[in-house]
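Good morning C.,

I know you're traveling, so I'll keep this short. The sequence:
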Amino acid sequence: MALKKHHKWIIGSFTSLILIFMITISVFTYMLFIRQEVNYNSLNEKISDFKMETQSNINTLSDSVIKTKSDLETKLGIVQEEFSLLQASAGEDFSGIIEDSVLSVVTIKTDISQGTGFIIDEEGYVVTNYHVIQNANAATITTSNYENHAVSLVGYNSEFDLALLKISGIYEKLELGNSDGIQVGEKVIAIGNPLGLQFSVTQGIVSGVHRTGPNELSVYIQTDAALNPGNSGGPLININGKAIGINNFKVGGSESLGFALESKYIKEAVNDIYQEGTGENLI
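The tokens, ready to paste straight into the viewer:
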């Protein structure tokens, strides 16, 4: 049966409504999808920014922790050093310094005399008084572990009564201190081999600086640390564990009048000797 006109209109209207509804639903769904996509991207950006900010904060915190640790270690090191110096100064406790320093001290025996020296470079360069080896035909160096070593003469400076020797091997060196900063009254120790008593230690103070010696030069430290035959060429060491002088002579017949060449002149003489063969400084 043929549809009447009003029936066709109703069906057409209903179909149109369905199409409009479907289009509206599609548009709404698309807009919802777009909005979710925008929100998703925005959320990802926020998460990414949050991660970057968190990592930056972690890096900053890590750097701060490292710096704090470094500052604490530095401050603790300074405190420990000051405490050690105070202990050595106030308590007259040189035991730790002696234990380290004696590793660099040597005994020198020749066919005519005996003395002391100390290692100033890891490769076995030894400094001593020139009069210890002067006119000798043979010499032997004994290190702190009581091993004997053949020795060669690198050179000497007779004005400062200084000689530079060499033995084979690698050793602990004794650092030279700054003799310009020496104060009268500061405590010192002398390590040497007085009267054949190897690696003996005596303690005293600096009694004077820039004293005039037999060479008419004002380059000597005066000390009341006991110096005897065999101490010549040994180090005069301060509470920092550095050699501020090389024990050279004492006034005959007197007590507590020993003299050591100041370390600045040791360095000057040693480098002059070493430069003659190499053109370079040794220390």
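Safe travels,
E.
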